[in-house]
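Sequence only, no structure available. Ideas?
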Amino acid sequence: MLGLGGPYYHDASACVVIDGRIVAFAEEERFSRRKHHKDSRSCAVATAYCLAEAGISLADVDEIAIAFNPAWPEPSDTCTDAELIAELLDPTLFDHHLPKQLTVIEHHLAHAASAFHPSGFDEAAVLVVDGSGDGISTTLAHGTTSGLKILRQRPFSQSLGWFYETVAEHLGLGNWTSSGKLMGLAGYGNPDRYTLDFLTPSPGGYHLDLSRWGIRPDEQVDDQYTDLRYYRRLKAAYTAAYTDLGIAPHRRARTYNPTSGRAVPDTSFHPEHADLAAAAQHLLEQCLIELAREALATTGATRLCVAGGVGLNCSANGRLAALRGVDELFVQPAAGDAGCAIGAALEVALRRGDLALPGHVMTTAALGPAFKEAAIQAALTDFGMAFHDHGDDLPAVVAEHLALGHTVAWFQGRMEAGPRALGQRSILADAHRTSARDHINRHVKHREEWRPLAPVLLEEAAPTLIGTSTPHPFMIVARPATDAARELIPATVHTDGTLRPQTVTRDGTDPYARMLASFAEQTGRPPALLNTSFNHEAEPIVCTPRDAVATFAATRLDALAIGSFLVRKDRGS
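Reply:
I predicted one. Tokens follow.
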């Protein structure tokens, strides 16, 4: 089965499932080197990778599924639009083969399947929340061994995702791609300063009413969806609502930097900006809690699965994990539209009888391409990089550099899925040094200094640092920092006292785990490090060895651990 994600001109992706197992998944942005692969629906290169990983051709695929209905609002089970199919799957990459038909999986069903089918649960309540897709913005579903049953849905005119992104845009943080910044800014604010009474959490969910700004909740707006008229009206209404609170739309000042030859934005914020962010974050969490309670009560389940773009909100996920009645939580690490490729492929596999539920548990996001040592060495040589082959000793050597306060780029194995680096394409530093966090934000990422960075730790350190032994493999659920964490890994504790951990199992065959263990042995401190994605602000996470070397050369990183090789840079360079 081949699933294609990101149908709305962003976050295109592909996933191949064979015999109910995810064999490969990748986001198109990693190949195009354009963040979110904006303004394109092509999944062609990601598909070509997935097929190569599976050892098959496009003609060999039994069924291809897309995660949206091109005929919306008319129902449709298939797509035979040759022009659209060619736009998604450029035939020149596939021996000029053009599939005649695609299976349509509704957008929110694909999201729901991406969370429930690989969760390993035999039953769960499922919550999908995003901007919108196929006219829907919120879905409650019940997952069982028979599959998914949709319980309740809310239309795009009740979108929580669009609410959240308009706050980020109003505060000058960027467009919808920058909503995650709002979560970080919220930690600095007072959530009680502003009352956003147009959005009301209530038993069973929430209610959005923007009547004061020209959009009634009972207004029929389906005809304004696909041409974006409603979206433009909505943004104008929210702008007026936030302005009425006394907060004008913020446009960051920029200054030309003659050294870099770039215009650099002002990354400071005003107290009222942080307070509005905090109010929006708190309100979003309250709405999600009511939705989750409703889903749990309706299904009688004690497990919760989450997907949709709002599912990338670590702070909100932390609140859901702590909710009474939630025994286990699974959040799809590629919770945004890219992850729909996973859900679409698994859903058609289930329908064809190739997947039995509960299915194979998604315990890793390392589903992308890996590269042989020869390819890595060739890239280093072509860039004129001096390197040393440390073989199996590399993890210990890297740990030594980290213990000395160096910042190290880490490129190992198959690229991870989703927006969070999980030990395949990471930048690592000593989490005890807050100066390391500031250096990465300021000189490597070139981003806002107030944005938090996350820890990776061996599972054995989890009770001490995050107060639980529950595995957190995907860095997508926030936890309250313990006193020990505040003392020992302060660079990864946000100003609100939380952190978003990745836990790793001690494994002598895993270089990542071995490096953490070696760091603990060399420092006498816990096996924990600061971990952030290997990229700078203008690009996606690196994919290939050449991407890695280029980004390493362009940033103030001290060393690059790639394959078995280590490249060192003068700290003054």
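The chain has a mean pLDDT of 96.
Hope that gets you unstuck.
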